């Protein structure tokens, strides 16, 4: 899962938007997709988090540290892995390779599996040609660079038979 963690860090916020370089603390910033503000590596703030000023057990009143942002990302990945497992079903989940689980977790983290049922089914079946055809994620009508990174690094190798792994 460390590769998935590092991939999401790069894909979600390689420029470290919201991080004050002088203090090393992270503050909420506008999301690339719009809508809810984000902090760290793509953590969308919930209404409860905005109201309480806390993310998990982290107080964000004065910003949060690098280590806190990484803890939040790890907890978010764990939550999205569990969400993907529920979506797929526990028995089917256990039959998947680590790479398939990672792809589904990353997709759950970014856009949600229910929005792309054909893509999700293709990943579950290991049908990389269909996954390639169904792999379209846009924000405000434009393909995001991070999605090209995801495709190039993790889907294309499977399609080409070289087995890229998250």
Structural notes for this entry:
The chain has 166 residues and is mostly helical. The protein folds into two domains: 2-74, no CATH class; 90-159, no CATH class. It is built from eight helices and eight strands. The strands form four sheets. Strands 1-2 form a two-stranded antiparallel ribbon. Helix 3 packs across helix 5 (98-110). The protein is globular and about 45 Å long. The model has no long low-confidence stretch (mean pLDDT 86).
Q: Sheet with the most strands?
A: 2 strands, antiparallel
Helical run tally: 8
Approximately how much beta-strand content do the residues carry? 5-15%
Beginning-to-end CA distance, first to last residue: 7 Å
How many distinct folded domains? 2
Class derived from helix and strand content: mainly alpha
Low-pLDDT regions: none
- From the alpha-carbon coordinates, what is the Rg to the nearest angstrom? 16 Å
Quantity of strands, as a count: 8
Query: What topology, given as strand order, has the largest sheet?
Result: 1-2
| Estimated helix fraction | 40-55%
Comma- or semicolon-separated keywords:
166 residues; two-stranded antiparallel ribbon; globular; mainly alpha
Topology:
Elements: H1 2-13, E1 19-20, E2 25-26, E3 38-39, E4 43-44, H2 47-52, E5 54-55, E6 58-59, H3 66-88, H4 90-95, H5 98-110, H6 117-125, H7 128-134, E7 138-139, E8 142-143, H8 145-159
Helix pairs in contact: 1-8, 3-5, 6-7, 7-8
Write a compact overview of the structure shown.
By secondary structure, this protein is mainly alpha-helical. It has helices at 2-13, 47-52, 66-88, 90-95, 98-110, 117-125, 128-134, 145-159, and strands spanning 19-20, 25-26, 38-39, 43-44, 54-55, 58-59, 138-139, 142-143.
